[in-house]
Write a structure and sequence with these properties.
6 strands
């Protein structure tokens, strides 16, 4: 029986942010597992092929670079791990080309796959409250 490896959220997202901060598609995609799902403005998109996800990220990151994606910083707002799944809510702050500070929230759904923690989905919003887990 395989045991689930520990997940140090601080280290994991420090490594992820290095790739994401440079909008490095090849490095970022290594953190993702297929199928991969993104929800943004109540619209959900799913990728089942790596090449298609790579193409989408390439186009998205080119657009982000045009708008300005400078000085990215994040803060882990909330994180929780169970035996084989986890999630983390991060607040991202960037500066765009106009010098405006922009912030948004990503909730990362994670799963341990073949002994490695991978991101299986992202929910993106500007409203932190929409992503907080409310205890039952």
């Amino acid at each position: 029986m395989l045991t689930t490896p520990q997940l140090d959220f601080a280290t994991y997202f420090a490594n992820f942010s290095l790739a994401y901060g440079y909008l490095d598609v090849d490095s970022v995609i290594e953190f993702y597992a297929l199928p991969f799902e993104v929800t943004f403005e109540n619209e959900c998109n799913t990728w089942i092929e790596r090449a298609s996800l790579h193409d989408t990220l390439t186009a998205l990151y080119a657009w982000m670079q045009q708008q300005g994606f400078h000085q990215p910083h994040y803060e882990i707002i909330e994180a929780q791990r169970t035996d084989g799944t986890a999630y983390a809510l991060l607040k991202w702050r960037i500066v765009n080309n106009d010098g405006q500070r922009v912030s948004y929230f990503n909730r990362y759904q994670m799963q341990c796959i073949a002994g490695e923690w991978k991101i299986t989905g992202i929910i993106r919003t500007d409203d932190e409250a929409a992503l907080l887990v409310v205890p039952a």
